[in-house]
Amino acid sequence: MKPTEEQMKAMLRTMLTIRGFEATARALYTANWESGNFLGALHSYEGQEAVATGACACLRQDDYVFSTHRGHGHFIAKGGDIKAMFAELLGKEAGCSRGRGGSMHMFDPGKGLMGGNGIVGGGIPLALGPAFAANYLGSDQVTVTFFGDGASSQGVFHESFNLAALWDLPLIFVCENNRYAVGTPASQGISVPNLSVRAAGYGCPGVTVDGDDPVAVYEAVSEAIAHARAGNGPSLVEAVTHRHSTHCMVMRETREEPELDKMKEYDPIPRFEQRLQESGIIGADELTQLKEEVSQLIEAAVAFAENAAFPDPATVADGLWVG
Questions:
Q1: Is 321 a domain residue?
Q2: Which of 87, 98, 132, 218 could link 94 by a cystine bridge, Cβ 3.0 to 4.6 Å?
Q3: What is the domain count for the chain?
Q4: Which residues neighbour 65 within 8 Å (Cβ) at sequence distance 6 or greater?
Q5: Residue 213 and residue 305: Cα distance in Å, rounded?
Q6: Residue 322 included in any domain
Q7: Is 38 a member of any domain?
Q8: Cross-strand partners of 209
């Protein structure tokens, strides 16, 4: 299935919002780290915007998404509130996890956002839950679980895929192959050139696509969703992409400058802007206006978060079970 022109313009807005959020979040991180007003590590999604955007554009609000430690893009692409995201980063009560979770733990179950996970591959088995529930209840909802190339070699990926295939669960496995598991190149940790072939071991479809092209991701995930909604079980979509920043803000960059410079050629945002302009889908003036709207959205969200209150210390045990 191909996206409409309006959907493609919406995709560009989403990608610009993710990029703007991440650039601003990095600046906030640096400014707030020493004072302790920023929760935990920050894993930037810059460069991978096309994956979350293309995949989530196929989903309904009642479909589920399980994210990763690098999850801001998924949250935004599925419709999460960026005001609540910035508030969460700053540890505020108005955050989407009430200031308790930080960068890797953003939730909005009402929009099907079931949060990130600081454990590599940790969200994959959790995604079996709503996928099983959909089958059990006779719903046509689907679940998407995102994970990286490093997580694809975790045993939990294979165990979960086997179970999903065995029970024909409506689960789409989306591997964001940014070519590095922290600092280990995929070629040194994975035995096959294309991760998508691993789906064949479970009798399921698998496909590798250009993860820097939101339309390519949209088409592949749309097909996987149709397959799942029809009761045919899981699929694996490998989206090969590029991570622009270091693994996280508390780690130094280990990749060489020539490689980092080369990544600029694959930047999904200018590529997609050019594509939409050349095809007449968006004009120069409309693009400028769109960028200004996104900039204002980010600015307002940061102001909201900075002015929001910290949690009341008396509520520190809220949500905890004490046996």
A1: no
A2: 87
A3: 1
A4: 56, 59, 74, 78, 112, 113, 114, 143, 144, 145, 146
A5: 32
A6: no
A7: yes
A8: 239
- 239 forms beta bridges with 176, 209
CATH number of the domain that 259 lies in? 3.40.50.970
Domain encompassing residue 27: 5-315
**Side chain identity, residue 224:** A
- Let me know if residue 114 belongs to a domain: yes
Residue indicated by tokens 């990130």:
116
Q: 215, 145, 218, 202: which is closest to 176 by C-alpha?
A: 145
Identify the helix (H) or strand (E) that includes residue 29.
helix 5-32
Pairing state of beta strands 235-240 and 171-177? parallel
Give the DSSP letter string of 56-74.
HTT--TTSEEE--SS-HHH
* pTM of the predicted model as reported, rounded to 2 decimal places: 0.94
Residue 121: phi and psi, rounded to 5, are 80, 5
Task: Give yes or no for a contact between 197 and 127, defined as CB atoms under 8 angstroms apart.
Answer: no
